[in-house]
Amino acid sequence: MALTSDDWLRAAYHHFADHGPDGVRVERLARTLGVSKGSFYWHHRDRQALLTALLSRWEQLSTDLIHTAEQQPCPRASVQWVLDSLLQSVPNSVRSETQFLNWSRSDPQAALVAARVEDRRVAFLTRQVRRSGLDPADAPLRAELLYAALIGLLDRVGRGSAAASLPTLSTHLLSLIPPRALTPEPA
């Protein structure tokens, strides 16, 4: 069985979701894939190179998610699409999200990538709030609040705390972006 670099990366992503960066070990991945460790070193210089590739993959997936979401017809649908995408893969996607953010608290390279990802996410949410017709000056604050609530929700779902009430929680979360913003009556 000839594996590709991407096969190793996919396996690493799954182990990462369950165990964080400490769970991404060459020997463990080789056992999971049913191959020798030599196959790993054919594709990756070392474990750190794999972890760097893992960070890059997460950043790319996050960017792709935002790009696809922005193709939705309205701001609320865009945010709903992101939320659904992250929550559809419960618990793997949710766990990997929380693992990446947790990792960023202790690893400088992960912190840089997480900062870029979070900046893009908040900028996306800011654009959606502005698209909804709400006060543009209020958009950055509302986006930060929406993002903080989303991350908190993902963390709780990842720990199994909020899974039962997910539909209700996501509906309330989306209420920060009204379906149609109210505009003041002309004086």
Automatic annotation (TrEMBL):
DNA-binding found in the keyword field: yes
Q: By its UniProt entry, which Gene3D superfamilies does this protein fall under?
A: Tetracycline Repressor, domain 2 (1.10.357.10)
Against Pfam families, the record matches this protein to: TetR_N
Identify the keywords attached in UniProt to this record, alphabetized. Answer: DNA-binding
HTH tetR-type domain span:
2-62
- The record's DNA-binding region positions are 25-44
List, alphabetically, the InterPro entries matched: Homeodomain-like_sf, HTH-type_TetR-like_transc_reg, HTH_TetR
Record PROSITE patterns:
HTH_TETR_2 (PS50977)
The protein here is known as TetR family transcriptional regulator
**What's the source species for this entry?**
Deinococcus radiotolerans
